[in-house]
Every structure is written in C-alpha cells, then in structure tokens.
Fold:
Amino acid sequence: MSKDLSLDTRYMKGFVKPAEIKEIMPDVEKAHFMLEKKNGPGNGYLGWMDLPTGTCECLVREIEETAAHMRAISDAVIVVGIGGSYLGAKAAIEMLTPEFVGRKVFFAGHNLSASYLNGLLMSLKDKEVTVNVISKSGGTTEPAIAFRIIEAFVEKKYGKENAAKRIVCTTDAAKGTLKELADKRGYKTLVIPDDVGGRFSVLTPVGLLPIACAGIDIRELLGGAASARERSFSMDLEANPCYMYAALRNLLLRKGKKIEILSNFDGRFHYLAEWWKQLFGESEGKGGKGIFPAACDFTTDLHSIGQLIQDGERNIFETFLIAEKEDRDFVIPQSDDDLDNLNYLSGKSEGAINFKAYQAVAEAHFEGGVPNSSVIVDNISPRSLGQLFYFFEKAAAVSGYILGVNPFDQPGVEAYKKKMFKLLGKPGV
Ligand code: PA5
Structure:
C-alpha cells in the first residue's frame, strides 16, 4: 500500500505563526460544519463529498464495460467537453498514460479553434473512432459546436445508424439540449448527478468514463479519493492536511499574498494544475475576493518566471506538488573524459537530482520571501491522483467558506457568454 498524501509546512515558519492558526480555527470549524450539516451557501451541490464511498458498484461496472467496449471498437475515443466537463479527465490521462506513445483518448470542444479540430479530425480520418460528449447543462457553446462537427464526421464514416452506436452522452438525467438530442437519436447516456457541479465532477461519469477509456483503473482512483476523504474530517490540523492547507492559504491571503502558484517538478502534473486552477478560481474568485491560482512546471519555469518568484513583488505564496517516487528513472553514466564536468553526478539517478532541485527551490523561495508548503504523494498512480482530487476539492470548499463566498456557483462565467451571444445574434438574446 502506498503512503498517504501529506502536507509539509516547514517553509511557512515566520510567515504564519502557530497562534494565527489557532485564531482561524473557529472559521475552519464553521466551514466544516456548513459542509457536514449541509446548511452553507450552495448546499444543493455537495454530492461530490460522498462520491468516493457512495458510488454504486453497478455504475462503476457500467462505466468499465462501456469503456472496454469503446476501447475494443476504436483506435481513438474523442471526448468532447469544456471546463469541469474536460479538465479532470485531461489531468488524469496526462498524468497516468505515457506521453509519447499510444494515446487513445483525444479531446475536443474545450476551445473554439477551427485549426485544432481540423487537425484532430484529419489525424483520425482513417482510424476507428468513438465519441463521448459531456455537458451538464447540455447547451455549452464550445462542446456543442465541436459535437455537431464530430457527429457529422462520424455519421459520414459509419452511416447514421452505426454512428449512433459509437456515441455516448454524459449529461443531466432529465433536462437539457444534449439529453433531448441523445434520446431522439438513440445515443447511450450516462448521468451527471444534479447535486454535483462541473468542477467537482471528476469522480462522476464525467471523469470516470474518459479515464477508463484511457485504460486507467478507476477503482484505484476512487479508492485513493476514499482514503483522502476519510482523513478530511479531523479538527486536528496536524492530522488533516486538507483543512491545514485551507487554513494556511486564507491566513496568507489576509497578509496580502494574493497569488498562489502550484509548482511541480514533473510535467505529468501539468494538467492537474489546470484542473486545480479552475477548481479554486471558480470556487473562490467572486464578489471582489479570491486568490489568483497560477501554476509552474519546474525546473523549466525556473529559467523564466523563476526570477519573479524569487525576487519580484512579495504577493505570492507557493504550493509544491510532489511525487516522492520516480517510476521511470535514469542513472547518470560515468564519462571517461568528463568534458561536461558531470562526473560528480555519475551514479546518481535523475529523479534524485530532481528531488534535490525541489528541496533547493523550496528553501530559496522561502528565503526570498515566498512562504511555501508541499503537497506530497507517494508516486504517480491512480490511487495518488484520487487522493489529490479529493484533497483539493474539499480544501476548495472549506477555503471558500472561510473566505466568505459560495464555493459552488460561478456567476462570473456568464458575462462573456452574453456578449458573445449578442455578437453572434443568438435568438432571444
Ligand atoms: O465548473 C463549471 O460548472 C463549469 O466550468 C462547467 O463545467 C463548464 O462551463 C462546462 O459546462 P457544461 O458541463 O454544462 O457544458
């Protein structure tokens, strides 16, 4: 069994005092009880809290069987969705499947780039494809446009009747344009529960089907999330990294640290940070409040915005995302002439060198005035990812309540849509 997720807070020293953690405890408790008693703002959207333990075996099996069938009849599964209907699956697949060979799942509908969609469909011209279109509301413009084009592509390839057998819709149980369309055309549907909002939906069929289509073990993912859930109730912050993280980020914000950077030392975490940005940005950024969620890929970004982090305006705090074990390591070979002066490293693994880089960066940023903590998981695995998903979801909920916002709505997302619909001449706008 792998080690549980932990939070290393050594480099908060001096920035957050133990007395301040005591002072914020009533806010943490209040947030905790708003979630437990389901009486806080947005309390109609707390279904995510019990997904790791409450998801029915029959649904897990249905998802596994659907995924196995889609994998068997296709070279490529096109997943169509945006925001919460895209980022969780993208994060999991980028983290847990090899970068360079044999990807089976491709994404569309997460932008309005004609060139992207064109390139994707051209590359799949001679391949067998299946499609999973995902939209809770059923009417989001970007995936709706992509799906109309992809549906025509699949119908042209297989004919209407056979195409219908290759399309799965993940949407509301009863309402919305996509549900209506799926029923009329005879597409298989999977349900997004009413009480789970987009950015909290990765452990519903929204995330689980594409993740299973990529060949990832969704039971391990749910198991990891269940273990993070189990540890997320304690009021002893030393035993509950989730509440500690939520408390620390609010204390830092109160001291003017308005930007949080989620930094990794393994590119496989890149899209998890994109998922995290949406989770915290949409949950907290409202009513003139919020912490700006940014992300860095290290050591790459140490050679770019590393300068600003070390030495720029001191309005930043940082959270490192660390996997302790490197699973595909290299050992630095010995060189006879040592012309590159690297023999002092020979015999060491690249993973160990990367870990030293992380330790050096955490200390240097701390000394430069950037308080930082580290969210540490054992390894890159479905179980660790499940822990991370749940850890951050619950932290976003508690942190949002501490901040005094409704973490489960996103009123600001509508503003651009209204303008765009007006410009496009949408009937009724
Ligand atoms: O978190 C959210 O609610 C949003 O980001 C949605 O997930 C996103 O807008 C996509 O919405 P839908 O699934 O309704 O197409």
Notes: Residues 82-85, 135-137, 140, 143, 197-199, 282, 410 surround 5-phosphoarabinonic acid (CB under 6 Å). The mean pLDDT is 96.
